[in-house]
Design brief:
- The protein is globular.
- The chain starts with 5 loop residues before the first helix and ends with a strand.
- Helices cover about 25% and strands about 25% of the residues.
- The protein has about 200 residues and is an alpha+beta fold.
């Protein structure tokens, strides 16, 4: 049997190290993916006291490559946290990243999010008059929707309209209430020209 040369042993050892690192390192970490301004983060977490109102999940919007703007839940105001913190928090173990296919929209949306919510005294509230353009009080997914709205893009939801005689059609309209998982609806993603670009531990 042929003896391996020292150089061959070094190369094989190097390859084995790379393979082992690929197996041992956690999957889906933030440093393996480039976040962009305007990215929408949707997690499976739900703020305490919110799930009873029929709202599932949590939403935030990326304002730069390392930071998310969100509102955490009751008795909170809009605030920013690092993407690393978002992904490492026990309440956000599962996250999907939604991105507009319009390459120029994200930066404008991120700026509108900062202009309208960052350091603003806007309390969290789900007991609202359904109107996502009214942000005297807000909630996580409305914060995201409104940032896009102020950037000139209105994310619409599908609704089924009866035409009579058993005939129905899908109409697209401004939501009265926008829920986090509404941003994951495949039909809405396609219609609004968005797509899921990354999934973390979902």
């Amino acid at each position: 049997m042929k003896k391996l040369l020292v150089e061959e042993k070094i190369i094989i050892g190097f390859i084995l190290c790379i393979v082992c690192l690929g197996i041992l390192l956690p999957k889906g970490k933030a440093n393996s993916f480039q976040f962009k301004p305007g990215d929408i983060l949707i997690s499976k977490s739900t703020a305490p006291g919110v799930s009873g109102k029929g709202i599932v999940g949590h939403a935030g919007i990326v304002i730069d490559s390392k930071t998310v703007l969100h509102i955490a839940g009751p008795n909170k105001m809009p605030s920013k946290i690092s993407i690393t913190e978002w992904l490492s928090q026990s309440k956000n173990p599962s996250t999907k990243v939604i991105r507009s296919k319009n390459a120029t929209l994200g930066t404008k949306v991120a700026q509108k999010a900062k202009d309208n919510f960052l350091n603003k005294n806007i309390p969290y509230d789900l007991n609202f008059t359904p109107n996502p353009t009214n942000i005297k009080k807000t909630y996580c997914s409305e914060l995201v929707w409104y940032s896009y709205y102020k950037a000139g893009f209105e994310y619409k939801k599908p609704s089924t309209l009866s035409m009579g005689g058993g005939v129905f059609k899908t109409v697209w309209q401004r939501p009265s209430i926008i829920k986090p998982y509404d941003f994951l609806n495949n039909l809405a993603l396609s219609y609004n020209n968005f797509h899921i670009v990354k999934t973390f531990n979902w």
